[in-house]
Design a protein that fits this description.
The protein is an alpha/beta fold. It is built from 15 helices and eleven strands. Helix content is 36%, strand content 12%. The strands form three sheets. It has a five-stranded parallel β-sheet, sandwiched between helices. The chain is globular and about 65 Å long.
């Protein structure tokens, strides 16, 4: 869910948890004509041994390090696997107690007297399994507030109000599209992972500062009964990753609870499929016995959650509205400004105008709208058919200019750090390390 970026030059080594910060410090830029940034960042979903580890920039290759540790030895940066602690997670009780101890330790750290400022927990609750499970586990350790986004990407209700009421957690519900009212809201999200699907969190920004945000990202691969488990952290998607830059700007920490103990995913999967968990196995294609048991034992009614799978992600590559109005204008200007770079490479520069040269755009979108309506009418029990229809909708709505969003967002994000540094006296001599500034 987060990473380090490092760059070694002839006289320094730069490390930052923010790519825009690092490139702003070294004066680096990426190639606006390169169309592969999204698949490069998406490669982390294939696991720790198969992701794209280098990002080409004008300042050199920036190395990307997920999960593992960087080391400094005799003037050189190295990478070491993160130490692993094997825990006895053979039963539901052992795993649940481990998660409880993890949250207890986290809260102790958050509220330690040695901190300049203490942090507070903030949960996320939808009508599904994962975020609600994290909230239920954290409730005894001081979680009293949570946020929700009202509806899923399909438009179905998804607030989780019944779950919050049962847990005694105050729930603030935000409109899923509230982010569109902000100025350039997409920038930090797209600048993180070239996708930006978690931009809907922008709508809850007033609640996020000074918090530790508990989420259920990766629950599909850890808590689902039928999930293929893998210690290499193979993921179903990259959801949650686009928060990594935004959280620095707003000032919160992100704790996706399913990642706790994730390298023992096989043992956790075995618990889900064990005979002891059969009473909490709802059957079908969307069953998470561990989550159901935790929630039901916390007093949440069985029919209040986990009835069908929903998502809240914003997919810019499949959005009819694409960007927010101000961002769309700025993106058009940015494309025009960089058009000569396409010409120098013998390429036709992309355009963003009312006179769209793509003759199939209109028919594609019309077909997508029809399929989306049919998917919405499908019975809930046939959620997998609805999901397949939604995939076809995404292909029909695919926005061809999406692949150039990352260099635009990265350039705009760098400006924030450049402005911050301009307000401070320059270091003498230049500091060798760039810290991820909170903005």
């Amino acid at each position: 869910m987060d990473r380090l970026h490092s760059l070694e030059t002839s006289d320094a080594a730069w490390v930052s948890n923010s790519l825009p910060c690092l490139l702003s410090m070294v004066g680096g830029a990426v190639d606006p004509t390169y169309p592969g940034y999204f698949p490069d960042f998406k490669s982390i979903s294939r696991g720790l041994s198969r992701y794209a580890r280098g990002l080409a920039t004008s300042a050199g290759i920036v190395r990307i390090t997920y999960f593992h540790n960087l080391t400094w030895d005799h003037g050189r940066l190295g990478e070491e696997p993160k130490p692993s602690a094997e825990r006895p997670l053979a039963t539901f009780t052992a795993y649940r107690d481990f998660l409880k101890r993890t949250i207890a330790g986290l809260v102790e750290n958050m509220t330690a007297r040695d901190r300049a400022g203490s942090l507070r927990l903030l949960g996320t609750i939808s009508s599904g399994y994962d975020s609600a499970t994290a909230a239920a586990l954290a409730r005894p350790y001081g979680l009293t507030e949570a946020v929700s986004f009202g509806s899923s990407s399909s438009g179905d209700p998804d607030s989780g109000e019944l779950i919050a009421d049962a847990l005694g957690v105050r729930l603030t519900i935000f409109a899923r599209h509230a982010w569109r009212a902000a100025t350039f809201p997409e920038v930090p999200f797209v600048a993180s992972d070239a996708k930006g699907e978690d931009v809907y969190f922008k709508g809850a920004e007033a609640q996020l500062g000074g918090r530790v945000l508990l989420t259920g990202f990766h629950g599909d691969r850890v808590w689902d009964k039928r999930a293929a488990t893998n210690e290499d952290l193979v993921r179903g998607d990259q959801s949650g990753l686009s928060l990594s830059e935004y959280r620095l700007w707003v000032g919160f920490l992100h704790c996706p609870l399913p990642f706790a103990g994730v390298r023992q995913a096989r043992a956790i999967g075995a618990i889900s499929r064990s005979r002891d968990m059969a009473p909490w196995d709802s059957g079908g294609h969307y069953s998470r016995p561990i989550c159901r048991r935790i929630l039901e034992e916390a007093g949440v009614p069985r029919d209040a959650f986990g009835r069908w799978k929903k998502t809240a992600s914003v997919l810019f590559f499949a959005q009819e509205g694409f960007l927010s109005p101000a961002s769309l204008v700025d993106y058009r200007t940015w494309l025009d400004h960089h058009a000569p770079e396409w010409h120098r490479r013998g390429l036709v520069p992309p355009t963003l105008s009312a006179d769209d040269p793509d003759p199939w755009r209109g028919p594609r979108h019309a077909t997508a709208r029809l399929l989306e309506g049919l998917a919405h009418m499908a019975p809930r029990r046939l959620w997998y058919l609805r999901s397949a229809a939604q995939r076809i909708v995404i292909l029909g709505r695919r926005e061809r200019l999406f692949r150039h969003l990352f260099p635009w967002a990265l350039e705009r994000a760098k400006q924030r750090y450049a402005a911050t540094v301009a307000l401070e006296p320059p270091p003498q001599p230049p500091a060798p390390l760039a810290a991820g500034l909170p903005g």
